[in-house]
Design goal:
Elements (H helix, E strand, L loop, with lengths): L11 E3 L6 E3 L3 E4 L4 H6 L11 E4 L4 E2 L4 E4 L6 E3 L1 E7 L15 E8 L2 E2 H9 L5 H4 L5 E2 L4 E2 H4 L6 E6 L2 E7 L7 H9 L9 E3 L7 E2 L5 E6 L3 E10 L1
Amino acid sequence: MSYIFDPAPVPTLAVADSQDRIPVRRIFCIGRNYAAHAVEMGKDPDRDPPFFFLKPNDAVVEDGATVPYPPETEHFHYEAELVAVIGAGGKNIAEEDALDHVWGYAVGNDLTRRDLQLKAREQGRPWDLGKGFDRSAPIAPVHSVSKVGHPSKGFIRLTVNGETRQEADLAELIWSVPEMISILSHSMELRPGDVIMTGTPAGVGPLAPGDTCVVSVEGLGELTTKIGPKE
């Protein structure tokens, strides 16, 4: 057998303090997982059942990269996130066993074409064009659980050109990492290389060409993304 087209390269994540790489299979994202962010998006902050959406695995962007301002948007937004990387697959995973399936954690930024997302939401349509566009998932090097444990508290912060725009504590997550893993695994089988972006705090807002956006999570370091000219 031969391929009609050459297979696409496997998207990968860097590993902190290592030359090894993690192949990325899928990127799951959870919506409105901090109460204050739910309110700023015009939604009820109560603990409603969680909902998820996906980004393509090739949306991954390295720390320090320049992301061009994407087309078809006038409201290009940042979203600081804690990222969990699955290292052991499974389905129907019990919540009390879920953390055994995590290989490590990283700092992420769920870049969003907000105007396209909100238009889709108003029309009852999928968010794909607002969330799953090219280079929409900057993720810093992944830290193994053996070195950082399982972060459940500590600051998550985002700055634009040195000005703080988002700041919260991981303890404010509505749905915890083990809860998210368990819920997802009851819907579909999780496998190594699956990535979970765990939601963003309040304070989301716009980016412009020339901006430098830095996300930091306590114990996990920083993720720096520069915004380039419009495509």
